[in-house]
Fold this protein.
Amino acid sequence: MSEKLILGISGSPRKGANTDFLLQTALDEAAQTEGIRTETIYLRDYEIHPCNSCFACCSDGAEKADRPCLAFKDGMEEIYPMLKECSGMIIGSPVFFGSYSAQTKAFMDRTEGLLRYGRSSYGNALSNKVGGAVAVGGNRNAGEEFTLLAIHYYFHIQNMIAVGTGNTPTPGCYLGGSATTFPQKGRVKDAVKDDELGIKSAKLLGNRVAEVLMMMK
Amino acid sequence: MSEKLILGISGSPRKGANTDFLLQTALDEAAQTEGIRTETIYLRDYEIHPCNSCFACCSDGAEKADRPCLAFKDGMEEIYPMLKECSGMIIGSPVFFGSYSAQTKAFMDRTEGLLRYGRSSYGNALSNKVGGAVAVGGNRNAGEEFTLLAIHYYFHIQNMIAVGTGNTPTPGCYLGGSATTFPQKGRVKDAVKDDELGIKSAKLLGNRVAEVLMMMK
Amino acid sequence: MSEKLILGISGSPRKGANTDFLLQTALDEAAQTEGIRTETIYLRDYEIHPCNSCFACCSDGAEKADRPCLAFKDGMEEIYPMLKECSGMIIGSPVFFGSYSAQTKAFMDRTEGLLRYGRSSYGNALSNKVGGAVAVGGNRNAGEEFTLLAIHYYFHIQNMIAVGTGNTPTPGCYLGGSATTFPQKGRVKDAVKDDELGIKSAKLLGNRVAEVLMMMK
Amino acid sequence: MSEKLILGISGSPRKGANTDFLLQTALDEAAQTEGIRTETIYLRDYEIHPCNSCFACCSDGAEKADRPCLAFKDGMEEIYPMLKECSGMIIGSPVFFGSYSAQTKAFMDRTEGLLRYGRSSYGNALSNKVGGAVAVGGNRNAGEEFTLLAIHYYFHIQNMIAVGTGNTPTPGCYLGGSATTFPQKGRVKDAVKDDELGIKSAKLLGNRVAEVLMMMK
């Protein structure tokens, strides 16, 4: 039987830094479950225009062209098929001003054509898939929770199943992986590796995404 | 095969008013799914002391007595077995000061013994069950969303699966049933019956709770 | 000139434990500002019925009797005059299931008569006063932020000025005082005293409430 | 005496559509207060790169060059001086996937150099200024509240004073201007003009921003 894909999405502008690490920690843990494989998309490697709200994704044109976005031909063209293929998704973002990065949001906004309204074959592409979130903040209680809630909101609108860290005592965070670079400065690229509790929460999140995915018929 | 129970919890202090109606609307819709039955608990009918944070639910005593709460013998004694029995739960609350009523929260806080830490046979009683939420506010955008997010937070901590309104276009709200008594005054007991969009969102939520429940192995 | 009062409200059921300590830390810091005095109300010392949503506070009866609540004669009778008198308020709550305790919410819900609708002389009693919040959670990112947001929501509905921790680098939390008993268990009454960052955030919050209060004409 | 500036920031990609209208409604109301003038920035008219998290804004280089961002020379160069000049700010965003648009967030993320850490003369540029928010959603309870909370979070981190709609009964929303294009489709450019309650909330928000601004010493 073919393995089920959990897709990691990193919204960090910095290669190999804290958010990438925390996301990979979650994905690696998910991959411990038999029947799961993972891939990671680093949004910074793609040109992604923000959605211009043209609504063409809901038009006859989108149906005829079978494209989830008619406004731009950019990096999303490579990402869309992977969104269709995956069974689960883990979004990782640094916490900027209390919520996800603009880069993370640009990706989200460009998945409008995957909603119920989408007229191409990508319409409903994410429905009933399992979603998890991880966030890294420069202060300890400084938007990590809010970022996870914001990513959950995205999952709900995509009709996905938003899950948290499962049933382990003292997970650090219930909503998802939550880590901080504090007391080091956010610019220190591996600061989050010292945050044991944050790493624990990311592992739990990864495991839970896999677990619920396998629980679904 | 025995039917699966979705338990409705009404946190409204007012009998037969707007929150009761919206909750019942959601439950009735859920019951349309074959294999689902529903029951409704009106918290106002029970004496429920707020949690005094004694942590006895996590003690040897709780295990020996096999009781999820050693601090109080009150209405929760009747409710606990139903929480164990149910496969899904829909919590309905009026919006008071932007979030759930104190009555709704007192019920939640008293389910500490059902968490992973709970030492009685009620420990983990809600794990992997499906949860949905409905809220009624006196203003249109006045805490309905926040109340639903707050109830979702409860579900996540109980390791439940928090679901929204599913995959229908223009659901009114994605997170759950969301209705308002506006432009009538909140005190008008059936004001919410004029809120078609709110009723639609409650129906969608009820249907989605049943749908996801049936989707779980 | 008479001093301005910042009222502390503790929603913890446990005397002298972590929330009380964090709240007092914030209040003591506020009191460093000349012209400020503080008092602390421990909600557990009062009998406070949850609001029954009778709307009598908005009736002619409330005006005639000049009472902000006609439904109950309980501990709130002592608290109402202090709410009228104060210039600022700091609410402290333990984090229960991701948000404030039922006890904290019961207090809030019973201040309906202080809203714009209130017909007694208590109507608008909190308008333009400055509000701050502190929260203590048993896990590190486990509802502290959400609790602070929920208390802010209360302040906004009361037309108060909700403030955070001000302008210091690495405050730990921007929204208010945020501390955790982790890695000790929540039941350890002075666990929060080991959370330096949490204590820092509470001090900053207290200072900011005083600062903004003095900034208002 | 020179007038105080309230700066409007529109994060809508669509010219002259619903968000622009709602934002202008708020600004026009604010301008009714004597001593207030307003200007509106449409982010779509500027090239704004998302923050690449280089932290140069906190470096000696930023101090020497006296520039709040060393990474990009783009449209923000024109906007930064207006952020320094203004006394208040109203941010308007369409609701995309439950929160602000990526465009709105890119603007926010690029104001990192205006924080307490900023080493140029733009450091602390927004501190103690008054902030308000308006949001337009395609569904009624579909992220409007969450978007306003997310914008408030931004204000708190910038040490601004986040205000809501003030003290009028039935404001529609307490947190800010909240309107919906429903039951018309979001693509209808003037759909929000039919939402009387949403327009009311935007006017109240504009008025409140001006009111609190004038209340500050």
In short: Chain A has one domain: 4-215. The longest strand of chain A covers residues 130-137. The radius of gyration of chain A is 17 Å.
